[in-house]
Structures are given as structure tokens and as C-alpha cells.
Amino acid sequence: MRITMIGTGYVGLVSGACFADFGHRVTCVDTDAAKIAALHRGEMPIFEPGLDQLVEASVKAGRLDFQTDLAGPVGEADAVFIAVGTPSRRGDGHADLSYVHAAAREIAAALKGFTVVVTKSTVPVGTGDEVERIIRETNPNADVAVASNPEFLREGAAIRDFKHPDRIVVGADEERARKVMGEVYRPLYLNQAPIMYTARRTAELIKYAANAFLATKITFINEIADLSEKVGADVQEVARGIGLDNRIGSKFLNAGPGFGGSCFPKDTRALVKTALDHDVPLRIVEAVLAVNDNRKRAMARKVAAAAGGSLRGKTVAVLGLTFKPETDDMREAPSIPLITGLLDLGAHVRAYDPIGMELAKHDLPDIAYAVDPYDCAKGADALVIVTEWVQFRALDLVRLKEEMAHPVIVDLRNIYRRDEMKALGFIYESVGRGTI
After folding, report:
1. Chain centroid to CA 108: how far?
2. Is 355 in contact with 290 (CB distance < 8 Å)?
3. Cα–Cα distances in Å, from 171 out to 18, 163, 168?
4. CB within 8 A of 164, min separation 6: which ones?
5. Could you give phi then psi for residue 159, rounded to 5 degrees?
6. What is the pLDDT of residues 108-121, one digit of tens each?
7. What residues are paired with 356 via a beta bridge?
């Protein structure tokens, strides 16, 4: 099939490359000429393991190309996917749909023959209705069906998630659209990936509900971590104990500094706003957002307490800046409010991240950056582990201690064993497991 992907951001580029790998003929379109030129040179605008090889292979095979003009690719397409950004709108937290609406208008003018227009971007309930209205208003003669196909990709594991999905959700009110989407995903039948066909609005809500529920699990275990510290329990054992119940499950029960990234904060805020617009307050989701925001700000005070109560004039080393490992994404990363809080408390901050430092400099210009973890730790009065990069799980702890001015480690991801750190002579603070 011929597929056109509007947008070469995280969702658009990964989805387009995977569709091309399935054997479809895919054109990815973006208005950013510099980004398209870079893609033609084989340069990826995002860091995602394996993406550069996947793109290179499909380009060489003639199944994937990149353009700035959508008219030709849309006119030839069986399915056009809208995968543009939907950031939180400044001021009210609603999803900013201006890029989606602009794409719909341009697509409408270029349609030829029956085409399925699919919203792949994460959008509030009712967006598909508005996309359809825009298309029919712009081009009354268009033979079009509008569908919703939300993505469920984890940054750092997106290609595997796309090729081995838990489920594929297709929201379409026309049988013609369902048939086209069935053909688009037919290569996944061998993987026995279940396709769930729903009404369009239901598909839109599934995406938001899924992210809100996962954010709730993270926030719940973080609050249990705080209680564990007070009562002398171990939150990791608590999480395992409840996660073995298959009604609960073990995923997203790792205590830490709070959730971040491009999806959970933005999507939970947008869901709350949508609910308020319909006079259905979501009190649990509202609490999740408030607790998470407070938690990220509180992490600096946790570091101060471990370092003796004051950070004035002290050097704090921070390992990990991106919101999770295997990505360069700094959006809503817990490291940002943590480091801002450390600076407010009078600390000097030096940081290291394997991938994210260049992007981090835009959000955190007033700190020093190191060349490796040991350079970061040199002369530090305390060291904080913020992102659980695999490189940080096997540090030479003896060398690390020698580099530091004071052996204080605040492990916000619980990647080290408390007995090991005690034996090495560290003052070790973790999350939900107490201080040694």
C-alpha cells in the first residue's frame, strides 16, 4: 500500500520507517526543510536505538522517502497519517491542535480518490470529528474516511513495540476505512497482534485513559515509597509483593523521582481539561498530576538532607538528565526541577548523561557538564542518580568514592544494593528504602 506520514517527529518517523519495513511504500512529509535534508543524509532528528539502520535499509530498498511537499504523496496515498505534535497549550493545559488542523486543511486540498486519513497524533476525544469537518469544508468533493489509530510506543523500545504490539486500536466509523487499516497492519498478523476496532471517539479516549492509568500506577508506588521510608519497609519488596498479583501486574511499579517525558504529563493534563469541559471532574487524575509535580520539586530537598541539611556552596554531581534511558528526550524530565531546586539551594551542579547533554543545555544552561561519570563525581559533596542508564548500573564504586569529596549518594532509581553501599562506606539514600 502507499502510505503518507505527515510529520517526522518521534511518532511519525518511527511509524513511517516500520511501515516501510513491512513492505509498504511510505513517504514522510515535514515542513522543516532542514530536517528533511538531514534525513536524506541519513541523520536522525531523534535518538532511538535501531532507527537509523531501519531507515537506511528502507531508503535503499526504495520503500521510504522524505519530502517537504505533501500534495503529490497525499494524492497517491491509500492512507494518510497525521503524526504532528500536540503539545500542551500554553496557559490552560489543553492539547494544542493547531498543527493537526493545519495538516487536515493541506491534506484536504491534495486528496485524489478514496483515502483514509488517520490521526496518529495523541488527540482529545472529538478531534477526528473536527478533522473530518475541516476536510469536508475545504474539499466538499473529497472521498475520504477519517480514522483514529493511537500509538503506544515506549521511547527507547519503539521499534519493538511497533512490530510486537500488545494491541492495535483502530477507531473508524466506516467499513471501508476498517478494510484499509486491516491491510496496513496485515504484516503483523503473523505476530498475532490483536486489532481492536472501535468507534473513533472510543479510540481517542483509549489512548488518554491508558497513559493516565500508567501515570497513576507510578504515582501510587511513589507515595507508598514515602510511607515505606517512614515505617521502615522496603518499597521494592512491596512493589514485588503486589505486582505478583496478576490483577495488578509488576510494570510501572518502580519508585523514583516522578514521571516525565513527552506523553504522561501532557496527556494527563489534556484528559483532565477534556473532562472538565464535559463537567466530569477526574479527581484521581488531578491528584496524580499534583502529587507528581510536588514530588519532582521535593527531590532537591532529599539531596540536601542526605548531604547534611545544607547545599550552600557544595558541589552536587548529577548522573542522568533525560526522562528515561535510551532516549535523548528532555521533555518534562525530573532532572530539570531537581537541578533547578539544587541551584536554588545554593549548590554548584555538574552533570553527565550518555546521550542527552546537548539538548539539556537548552533547559539547563547554568550548570557544568562532564565527560564521563567519574569526571562528574570529581570533588563532589554528593552524587545523585536520576536516570537509570545501564552505564550507571555497573560503575566502579571504589573509584567513584575516591573521586568524591564526600561519599554521599542519592539513588533516585534504586539501582544499587543497600548492603553493598554500606560495606563500601557510602552514605546512601534511596527511594522508599531508608538511609544507611
Report:
1. 30
2. no
3. 21, 20, 10
4. 191, 193
5. -65, -45
6. 999 999 999 999 99
7. none
Q: Tell me, yes or no, whether 436 lies in a domain.
A: no
Give me the pLDDT at residue 240, please: 97
Rg (CA), the chain: 23
Question: Mean pLDDT of all residues in the chain?
Answer: 96
Tally Cβ neighbours within 10 Å of residue 141.
7
Could you give the angle at the alpha carbon of 73 between the alpha carbons of 71 and 74, nearest 5°?
65
Last-in-domain residue among 198, 226, 261:
198
263 is known as an active-site residue: yes
Q: Which helix (H) or strand (E) holds 394?
A: none
Q: Are residues 103 and 186 in the same domain?
A: yes
Q: How many CA atoms lie within 13 A of 166 on its CB side?
A: 7
pLDDT, tens only, 139-151:
999 999 999 999 9
pLDDT given at position 142: 96
Residues 187 and 269 in one domain: no
Q: How far, in Å, CA of 4 to CA of 65, rounded? A: 10
384 in any annotated domain: yes
Per-residue confidence at 436, pLDDT binned at 50, 70, 90?
confident
Which of 157, 151, 150, 163 shows the shortest CA–CA distance to 192?
163
80 and 103 belong to one structural domain = yes
Cell 522508599 found at: 432
